[in-house]
Design goal:
By secondary structure, the protein is an alpha/beta fold. Helices cover about 35% and strands about 15% of the residues. The chain contains 3 helices and 5 strands, in the order αβββαβαβ. The protein has helices spanning about 15-40, 80-90, 105-120; strands at about 60-65, 70, 75, 95-100, 125. The protein has a 5-stranded mixed sheet with strand order 3-2-1-4-5, with helices on one face. β1 (about 60-65) and β2 (about 70) form a beta hairpin. The relative contact order is 0.12.
Length: about 130
C-alpha cells in the first residue's frame, strides 16, 4: 500500500484571486480620489446682506478729498491723529474705529490710519456705500 504518494499536496498559489483584489483596490482608490477632488470645488451661492449694521460705540475717522482728518466730526491734524484717537479710545468701552474715506482720497492716507490702528491693536471697519 502506497498511501504517502496519494496525499501529497502541491505547493501552487492561484494568482487570479490576487489580481482581482489588486484591480478592485485600484478602482476603489481611483473613485475615492475623484470624489475628494469634487468635494473641494462645490460652488455655493452665499446670501447677500440687505440690512445695515450699526455700531454706535465705534469711533469714526473721516478723511475727505482735501486730506483732512476728522474724528467724530472734529477736525484733527494728521500729526496729532494718533494721540487724539488713543485718548478718545481710552474712555470708550470698545476699541473699534470706522474709517470713512472719500472715493478719491489717496490710499496712503487710509493706510496711515490703518497703521495707527494696527500698532495699537484697534479693530478696523471700512465704511462703504451700499449699491
Amino acid at each position: 500500500m502506497n498511501l504517502k504518494g496519494r496525499n501529497k499536496i502541491t505547493p501552487e498559489f492561484n494568482m487570479s484571486s490576487m489580481t482581482d483584489i489588486v484591480f478592485l483596490l485600484l478602482i476603489f482608490f481611483m473613485i475615492a480620489s475623484t470624489l475628494t477632488k469634487q468635494l473641494d470645488t462645490i460652488e455655493v451661492k452665499l446670501p447677500q446682506a440687505k440690512g445695515k449694521t450699526e455700531n454706535r460705540s465705534a469711533i469714526t475717522v473721516t478723511i475727505n478729498k482735501s486730506r483732512r482728518f476728522y474724528i467724530d466730526d472734529r477736525l484733527v491734524a494728521k500729526s496729532s491723529l494718533q494721540a487724539q484717537l488713543l485718548s478718545i479710545l481710552s474712555t470708550s468701552d470698545s476699541r473699534v474705529i470706522v474709517i470713512r474715506a472719500e472715493q478719491n482720497v489717496p490710499i496712503e492716507e487710509v493706510v496711515y490710519v490703518m497703521g495707527i490702528a494696527n500698532q495699537n491693536s484697534i479693530k478696523i471697519v471700512l465704511a462703504v456705500d451700499a449699491q
